[in-house]
Amino acid sequence: MLPPPPNRGLFFLVLGSICAALEFVAQANSATDTLNVLLIIVDDLRPSLGCYGDKLVRSPNIDQLASHSLLFQNAFAQQAVCAPSRVSFLTGRRPDTTRLYDFNSYWRVHAGNFSTIPQYFKENGYVTMSVGKVFHPGISSNHSDDSPYSWSFPPYHPSSEKYENTKTCRGQDGELHANLLCPVDVEDVPEGTLPDKQSTEQAIQLLKKMKTLARPFFLAVGYHKPHIPFRYPKEFQKLYPLENITLAPDPQVPDGLPPVAYNPWMDIRQREDVQALNISVPYGPIPVDFQACSFLTIILTTPSFSLHCLHISQESSEKGILLYLLCKWPLGFTPSLNS
């Protein structure tokens, strides 16, 4: 496995960093017809972006990419749950074929020995590499991110991700808490970094490394945010003053909603700041000021993620299974998605 890069201190995750490294590699391969592939996946990032008409969110790098890319307006995830949707688009098969509707089975054992997109590239001479959250971790990817089938090297996971659900959020009482809303001073968190920052550094390092090799590559980079908890560099709060934040016009539970169609968000209720609200289960209202802060933290993460060539984002909140998909050409493939 190629070694992880050293910690270079605080810098925000920007599109230019990866694009510059990718251009560096592209120049090295310009003499051949072989295309390198960079696949970037962002967990739970909904299409609240400038390129989709959102006037509040500042996403200049994504918008710039979208301006000269194929931007899909009507693409949908197979299922609004992490493991099934990732396995679905990475194998090109529906969940009723992979037999995965939750997190508790590995498709090669319970459904069929279906090839994945990176596996196809690997079997056709590509070096395939995984950084961050590409497959969902755990039994749904055989506790190995589908290694060794899909990857030429053991997948890279940032060392700081083990702190994601620990007490790293400084509260108003000065103590550390395991909160849902968690703006941080990056220098003060364990290891002085955040997982997505580490993943970006590793991706750039791998792109530079691949320039020295004569083989084409497939590099998948998976970002954790904006998946909960909302842990982000607090200096970006200034981009979104609370007085500019408006809430959804229909926050109430619809009349006659079947219980099976409602998610009481038990995982969110386990966070210390949410527990302090003492919200009744399952339909208790969330205080308006907490809703505004939650919305703020979600959109704060969106400008921080880099993407190029192919970008898939899954969404599982009130917009259901809508996702956004960007393809910058030339590109060797597009995954199978139902709309």
UniProtKB/TrEMBL annotation:
Organism whose genome encodes this protein: Oryctolagus cuniculus
**Any one GO cellular component localisation term in the record:** cytoplasm
What is the designated name of this protein? Iduronate 2-sulfatase
What is a single molecular function from GO for this protein?
Answer: iduronate-2-sulfatase activity
Q: Which cofactor does it need?
A: Ca(2+)
What the entry lists under InterPro entries is as follows:
Alkaline_phosphatase_core_sf, Sulfatase_CS, Sulfatase_N
Q: Where is the signal peptide?
A: 1-21
Spell out the family assignment given in the record's similarity comment.
Belongs to the sulfatase family.
Which gene carries the instructions for this protein?
A: IDS
Q: Which UniProt keywords apply?
A: Hydrolase, Metal-binding, Signal
Keyword Hydrolase recorded: yes
> Which Pfam family name is an example for this entry?
Sulfatase
Judging by the UniProt lineage, the source's domain of life is Eukaryota
